[in-house]
């Protein structure tokens, strides 16, 4: 790369050469302006000129003016030196000299004496060797070739790619072809074919480039005009004449902002990708981790009911079951936390019967109350128990509150779940226990994730500090509030206020009477292990479950209860076997997993009911529908209403609890023919 040094003083030329030669530049020397002109017209492709201001016969400014005359430009163009940038080396660096130098085409100034490395730094910057803005592009719009040349020389020091347009019309055409090619636009205000104000209107409106920085250059001092430009969408305005440093500093600031925006978009894209990975992990937790864990719990329950186990072996099996149950609860909590944190916890808001949901919750959790002989009361003290909410989320709220109350209640204690009208028309869900209570200082910490206020239950039940934080987030998602009242040693009341269904919202029919103003669910005694629920043969059950280990554990449990089990691996298999049973001997009940390949549980249930409805009047099973019980996990957005809509009668949650399954089948299974 060639550099021409125009300097009268041999000593000054030596200083310049000492700094530039080690960097591999080819240096040409001229002692007078005429010598420099001869070299520029005969030696091709000179990359840069350094020159002093004060010289005999013609100073540095006059020399640069002379180079820009039309006749000299023709000669320089033949050698490829018509756009060669110049760095002025001077001991008298004033703003006035800088302004004049930039007006005649100087690219930069450096003041004598300079510290080591400073000249090289300026040369590299002017030659575009700076990498700070590498990869960025600027569109310069001006009908003056001299002005475009000056701006180009100024911006080359930033290392940006520079495109040029002679007017607004060319600029619009350029941007329309490839809007993403340019990171910033510098435009003159007054041009022949399309002014800058018309250009900005098209950029912001027709092209829709709302974020592209557009900088105006003009000698117009009319403040009204400047204000109008900003209203039209201008990013900045620079008044002519200006110093090169001012232009470069502003361009650098805006380009850095654009770089920051690009990094922000890249980071957002990475975060979205990471969010997808996280969702995939949550899905893995939901299926790949929970399914085998549910199988472990099922087999542990079967072993608990095996009367041949020694006491020490039984204690170990019970430890496996307790640890597995705690791990399953943690997986459920982490799934909920992940969904809420990512905004993927989509709530299907519609009118719900909160009495039905709380009743299902109490029934689901009865197995945790039985070992401690805790009595659970459900009291419904209002006729209208409708709230606007998501059934799965409301069930999660009830389950967490009721399970917490049972967990912290001593053996033989009492938990009361009540629904009543609030003083301002809200629906109040209250869960009161006679447990250990909560210290006043710990109450503010209860709803924080992984809170230090988390404790073990009265029977040593473990806690992970997530349950109540999930309650709070879900309640607030329903525009409700949750509050705590507690007396240490006496008990705690968790009170949730839900908004009522508003007028005009699609609602469930209100209950015409309070037929069950108080429903008491008394759960005495110890839970029945699998062996304790054995009985005489009770008929056949169709059990559809996709997971082979769960299918094996569930089938064994049902067999211990006296049922003959016909297992199905998916919904279609279940339909085939049900259709065969219509001729070969009916089932007393169907247990239908909700998530299965080929055909899910809800659709399989609908098709099953269609098979029954199509039976002729003389068929033995005509008008004798077989009870269908849904088998679900806690994260499936399913309510009893969904089950009923698909022709199901009830639902059970995985992992199976022997006493729950036995109670449900006692209630629903047909009497063997």
Q: How would you characterize this protein structure?
A:
The protein is of the alpha/beta class and 673 residues long. Among the domains are: 1-127, Rossmann fold (3-Layer(aba) Sandwich); 348-521, Histidine kinase-like ATPase, C-terminal domain (Heat Shock Protein 90, 2-Layer Sandwich), CATH 3.30.565.10; 530-668, Response regulator (Rossmann fold). It has 21 helices and 23 strands. The strands form five sheets. Strands 16-17-15-14-12-18 form a six-stranded mixed sheet, covered by helices on one side. A five-stranded parallel sheet has the order 2-1-3-4-5, with helices on both faces. A five-stranded parallel sheet has the order 7-6-8-9-10. Helix 8 (168-177) runs parallel beside helix 9 (196-204), helix 11 packs antiparallel against helix 12 (311-342) and helix 13 crosses helix 15. The longest helix is centred in the middle third of the chain and has 61 residues, at 244-304. It is elongated, with a radius of gyration of 41 Å. The protein starts with a strand and ends in a 5-residue tail after the last helix.
